[in-house]
């Protein structure tokens, strides 16, 4: 990655205090390489996190699908139980069931008219 170049200035030799344009360009190129390496590292890190979150979302979706299918299955079984009980009650008392159905129909018709 980035390597720091430490300059030691000596007071006896003033020529060491001057920096040439070539040294500056070399430093800039080194920094560009470091930035490119950093960008590559960030890209790899980001795609790793993307895959991680994608797999977590897929697992959560599968769990939610299983839970909703289980709930739907339970509700269907309960509805079938109530349906069997209703049919058995209607067969046990057919005249009473017809009277109740007619009364409910009359009430609904009266409410709709208003």
Please compute the radius of gyration using only Cα atoms. Answer: 40 Å
End-to-end distance:
82 Å
Low-confidence stretches: 7-12
Average pLDDT, rounded to a whole number, is: 86
Number of helices: 2
Q: What is the 3D form?
A: rod-shaped
Helix content: over 70%
Order of helices and strands: HH
Q: Give the biggest beta sheet.
A: none
Strand content: under 5%
Q: Say how many strands there are.
A: 0
Summing up helix and strand content along with how strands pair, one would put the structural category as mainly alpha
Detailed description of the structure:
The protein is mainly α. The protein is built from 2 helices and no strands. The chain is rod-shaped.
Itemize the secondary structure elements and their pairings.
Layout: H1 21-92, H2 94-113
């Amino acid at each position: 990655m980035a390597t720091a170049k430490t300059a030691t200035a000596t007071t006896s030799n003033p020529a060491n205090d001057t920096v040439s344009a070539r040294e500056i360009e070399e430093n800039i190129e080194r920094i560009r390489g470091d930035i490119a390496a950093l960008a590559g590292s960030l890209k790899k890190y980001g795609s790793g996190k993307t895959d991680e979150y994608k797999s977590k979302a897929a697992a959560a979706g599968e769990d939610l699908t299983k839970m909703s299918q289980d709930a739907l299955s339970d509700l269907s079984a309960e509805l079938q139980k109530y349906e069997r009980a209703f049919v058995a009650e209607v067969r046990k008392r057919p005249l009473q069931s017809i009277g109740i159905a007619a009364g409910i129909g009359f009430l609904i018709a009266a409410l709709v008219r208003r």
